Amino acid sequence: MIINVEGLKKRYKKQMVLKGIDMKVDSPQIIALVGPNGSGKTTLLNCMTNLLSFNEGQVELLEKKHTDSSLFHEVSYLQDNRILYGSLTGYDHLKFICSVQKLPTSKIKEVAERVGMESYLKKRVRNYSLGMKQHLLLAMVIINEPRLLLMDEPLNGLDPTSAINMRRILLELHDEGTTIMVSSHNLDEIDRLTNTIYFMKDGALLKESLEDFSTKKYLLTVSEVERAKVILEEQEVPFTVNKDYQIGFEDTVVDVQTFIDRLNENDISIQDIEIQKIGAEKRYRELFEQELSS
Ligand SMILES: Nc1ncnc2c1ncn2[C@@H]1O[C@H](COP(=O)(O)OP(=O)(O)OP(=O)(O)O)[C@@H](O)[C@H]1O
Hints:
The protein has two domains: 3-212, 3-Layer(aba) Sandwich (Rossmann fold); 216-277, Alpha-Beta Plaits, CATH 3.30.70. The chain is 35% helix and 27% strand. It has eleven helices and 14 strands.
């Protein structure tokens, strides 16, 4: 088991933030941790990595108790940039990690190239931009090639090029067998990274799996809506018609090409096809509708 969390409860004074979290991950994957501000994502990651104590429950990472100090070779945690030292350079930070992880310093150049920070590696961190600090944080957590990588808001402050680069690196690490758990508010980016999402709601985790998110919705604008509706009805396909007279159906319920062929046979022309991914944002809206409207 890569991650095994059972009945984890965490209270800050009277506020119960984590109300009994259970999580089991037994194969390498990318998992997103999503939830509104203050829902407990950072608290959960801090508890899992032994930076915070908790009130009840247990955590095992890579079959070891989360307090086992040997885990630091195999588990990395990207936290926010307040852990960085302004008076030190990026190189100094990476050299320190090499010394505690017993890695050759040749790794520094390699990882700096991988994240694209060679040009400012020797500058002091106090002169780094937010995005540059994120690059350094990323370099610091991947230099030891961890089996498990936990990341709290890694996309903060990244420009589109850096975000694309970060995504590429995370997907490469995943291909190499690393399990990655990433908290983020950037739902579009989450959609590009993974279909496995844990939503944090009311101190509990709701796991949403790949199947629920891999659907697409087609919205067709056709020359004759009423006749097109009859054809869909004949095929017993559930569909909707919106206020713009677009006919909508999900790709799981009908073979789109078959439907298009039927329309053509009946001389109904298709003027436009819009494809929507049913993704993290849609599910987020459903789960947190109340919070969004208040
Ligand atoms: N040290 C602390 N003392 C008391 N309460 C805390 C402490 N740290 C966090 N909290 C509270 O715990 C709750 C969860 O905070 P946490 O930072 O884990 O949320 P989050 O989901 O990571 O939020 P964000 O998306 O804003 O980063 C919040 O209500 C917060 O006020």
